[in-house]
Design brief:
The complex is a heterodimer. Chain A is mainly α. Chain A contains 3 helices and no strands. In chain A, helix 1 packs across helix 2. Chain B is α+β, with helices and mostly antiparallel strands. In chain B, the strands form 9 sheets. Chain B has an 8-stranded mixed β-sheet, with helices on both faces. The longest helix of chain B is centred in the N-terminal third of the chain and has 29 residues. Classes of the chains: A mainly alpha, B alpha+beta. At the A-B interface, helix 1, helix 2 and helix 3 of A face strand 4, helix 10 and helix 17 of B.
Chain lengths: 71, 694
């Protein structure tokens, strides 16, 4: 509900609808998200680096606790 | 939701549930997205929905027929039953069938068919079951491992879910309104076959198929499975309470250990629950008291008005725990096991599961489905990985207790499955049983005389795996008794099993070969690659199966140019393949797969660049999974977790039995989804990659 929206041209809409179907996406949003995420990652990878804080590391470790494959 | 008597009963049951006084659930913070519904609202909504369902049922029935939402007349069956026995190993199944120990599977093979079933690269349950559901390779469904990595900081993340921000605020003058909330969504992409079947009028009941959390809405019922968290938001955190301070001091790693406080004749403790949204404490907690009755040989547990008698080394039934949050309470369930009663008292508490009756998280679709199952069959565990392997590895449980816990879980799942099967007169009934996987993980050392992990001296444990196969065979026999003429039955496993004697730390190997560099002064590295010098590191390993090239333009701290990455992959693969164990000269790594050649699809470049195919006996080391660089590449695996399946997939297929003759050769788990669609005369979408098997 109330997610941000982006408008595209009808031609682009038709193109991505067809592409999403061929790719086997469960819906159009999945395809659009994937395409945008991938491009955003590529651009952002050129941005400033950052280290994880100790609290962030602890939070990630906590979420995986109990997964039998991990110590 | 399909209009059936079951749904009407479901609404009715839920109305009855709400007719009894209930505490309202509370929203308890971001991240996990715990659901929030006032009981009054739900009561009214349920009444309205029940009324609409009953009043409009004839019109909806007619509309469905007009729209063609019924099983096609061209369908080759009206009902398909799929029983998943996670990890059933073909060499053991075949041997036990020849020995006459598995008469039902043998009969199924003779009357129908049996074949080994190809599995995914890598041969891991989340990957294989995702392919089972969707009929596509991992490059198209986006699940390559239990773990993936955050490219911005090279930290591991659970692969199957991601948090999504949804909370919003708007102001009206000085007043601030909050609406929406953060939530979790599934990252497995493409579509499960049951969703497609639902669009064509085929209703599916899906129980505990891995990688189904959070549950997705479709024309059917689903109960979530693997990676459903406990109430703390973890994958299963047990607690061990004790009066024995020495025990606390001696504990090795992990686990939630706490002292029981003496107050007169009572021992007091508190179980941690959901994260505390107020921030006053880390977790909300549920207090309990334990009153040892030493002469009588039991202890009395009291919590939230409940009183439970605990006998030593016997698991309790599910106990409801209530975690207070202001005037509200968040419910959870846990099992208790008194591990020691005497001069010292030690109490094991299972991970606190989301209550299926009053779920604080969405664990089923429709939302009421989990409650309906609980009303019909009693409370049951909802955690994704129910069997507490971590608790066993940390010695909070011994082998006998772990086995008891596993079979308690298995029994409640069987009960649910057979009840649901009786109500699935047409459509699909799917259920995955995990006991076969967990027991082989934890008891393989009893089959392998060369295994370095110690065995307990309890007589009979050496037959645990064989007995498990016999129990699974008996289950199959009971299912076969319920198969009607015309029904199709599949019994399958997602991969096989092998011994895990020696661990290989890929990060240590990469460091020794100069591909990974630690920060100045470090010779070993902390967890999660924290001590890695990214400016000089060209490759790293994270997760269970793979290696990543530190590629510029992909990784936030990448240094390897695109043109150089391919050559670097080849170089690493060539060196790793045939890696010999210095202990005895055995070859640990059979093959290293280039994922660019193995995967295709929208998500193929999310995969690790190289996937390691180990030989039997070997697996990635415990520390390597989380990015820790150890001193040595090879190490003995001395944990109870002694069997595994990270072996090269060509060596570790699963099994496939059916009451129909297979019409295709070399069946693969990727074939199951198109087969399911074809049986109901539903067009197989062009993106599905498998073939029809029957």
């Amino acid at each position: 509900m109330f997610k941000p929206k982006v408008t595209v041209t009808k031609e682009l809409m038709s193109k991505i609808t067809e592409a999403a179907k061929i790719a086997g996406c469960s819906n159009l949003e999945e395809f659009v998200e994937r395409a945008l995420n991938k491009e955003a990652d590529r651009v952002l990878s050129q941005g400033p680096k950052r280290e994880m804080s100790a609290a962030e590391v602890e939070e990630i470790a906590a979420k995986m606790k109990g997964l039998g494959y991990l110590e | 939701m399909r209009i059936t008597y079951r749904n009407i009963a479901c609404y009715g049951a839920f109305v009855l549930l709400l007719a009894t006084p209930l505490k309202a659930f509370a929203y308890i913070g971001p991240g996990a997205g715990f659901a929030f519904l006032g009981s009054g609202f739900v009561f009214i909504a349920a009444i309205l929905m029940a009324f609409v369902t009953i009043a409009f049922w004839p019109f909806i029935w007619l509309w469905r027929r007009v729209r063609g939402k019924v099983i096609s007349k061209r369908a080759r069956t009206r009902r398909v039953i799929v029983v998943g026995l996670d990890g059933l190993e073909p060499t053991l199944a075949e041997r036990f069938m020849e020995e006459g120990r598995l008469p039902n599977l043998k009969r199924l093979r003779e009357q129908g068919s049996y074949s080994r079933l190809g599995t995914t690269l890598p041969a891991l349950s989340p990957v294989a079951w995702s392919t089972f559901q969707t009929g596509v390779n991992p490059g198209a469904h986006n699940i390559f491992d239990f773990l993936t990595r955050d490219k911005r900081v090279c930290m591991p993340l659970l692969a199957s879910t991601e948090s999504v921000s949804g909370g919003k605020t708007f102001k009206l003058g000085p007043i601030k309104f909050n609406y929406g909330h953060d939530s979790v969504r599934i990252t497995r992409k493409s579509e499960p076959f049951w969703k497609i079947l639902g669009r064509y009028g085929v209703f599916s009941n899906v129980l505990r198929v891995p990688i189904s959390y959070p549950p997705e809405k479709f024309e059917g019922n689903i109960l979530s499975a693997m990676c459903t968290p406990d109430l703390k938001g973890t994958q299963g955190s047990f607690s061990l309470f004790t009066t024995n301070a020495k025990l606390l001091a001696e504990r090795s790693t992990g686990g939630e250990f706490a002292l029981l406080n003496r107050q007169g004749s009572l021992l007091c403790g508190a179980v941690d629950g959901p994260p505390d949204p107020s921030g006053k404490s880390k977790y909300l907690s549920c207090a309990f008291t334990l009153e040892p009755q030493l002469e009588a040989g039991y202890a009395v547990l009291r919590t939230g008005g409940l009183c439970v008698q605990l006998k030593p080394n016997v698991f309790s039934d599910w106990v409801e725990l209530k975690f207070p949050l202001g005037r509200k309470e968040i419910p959870g369930i846990a099992r208790f096991c008194l591990r020691e009663l005497g001069a010292e008292t030690t109490l094991y508490v299972s991970p606190v599961n989301v209550s299926p009756e009053k779920p604080a998280l969405p664990i089923s679709s429709p939302f009421l489905f989990s409650s309906w199952l609980a009303k019909r069959n009693g409370l049951y565990g909802t955690l994704g990985l129910m069997e507490d392997t971590w608790g066993r590895n940390e010695h909070a449980l011994d082998d006998a207790r772990f086995l008891e816990q596993t079979y308690l879980t298995h029994a409640e799942r069987e009960k649910m499955f057979f009840d649901l099967l009786a109500r699935t007169r047409e459509g699909v009934a799917v259920c995955v049983f995990d006991a076969s996987d967990r027991i082989q993980h934890m008891f393989w050392r009893y089959l392998d005389d060369r295994h370095p992990s110690p065995r307990e001296q309890t007589p009979g444990l050496e037959h645990t795996i064989r007995e498990m196969y016999e129990r699974m065979d008996q289950l199959v026999g009971r299912v076969m008794a319920k198969v009607n003429p015309g029904d199709v039955l599949f019994v399958l496993s997602d991969h096989g099993f092998s011994s895990f004697r020696r661990g290989v730390n890929l990060n240590t190997w990469l460091m020794r070969e100069g591909y990974l560099v630690l920060k100045e002064g470090k010779t070993v590295g902390a967890d999660y690659l924290q001590d890695v010098d990214w400016s000089r590191t060209r490759a790293y390993a994270l997760g269970l199966s793979g290696l990543y090239i530190n590629k510029r333009g992909r990784e936030r701290m990448g240094i390897v140019e695109e043109q150089a990455a391919t050559a670097l992959k080849l170089e690493i693969a060539k060196k790793l393949e045939g890696l010999k164990d210095p202990k005895d000269g055995a070859v640990s790594i059979r093959k290293v797969h280039d994922s660019a050649l193995c995967y295709k699809g929208l998500y193929a470049d999310e995969a690790p660049d190289l996937i390691v195919g180990y030989n039997p006996g070997y697996r990635v080391s415990w520390d390597s999974i989380t990015g820790t660089v150890e001193a040595e590449v090879f190490s003995d695996n001395t944990k109870a977790w002694s069997g595994d399946h990270h072996v090269d997939p060509e060596l570790i297929p699963g099994v496939l039995f059916s009451n129909r003759k297979l019409t295709a050769e070399r069946p693969h788990i990727i074939d199951m989804a198109p087969t399911m669609l074809d049986l109901f005369a539903v067009p197989v979408p062009r993106h599905m990659e498998g073939k029809v098997l029957v």
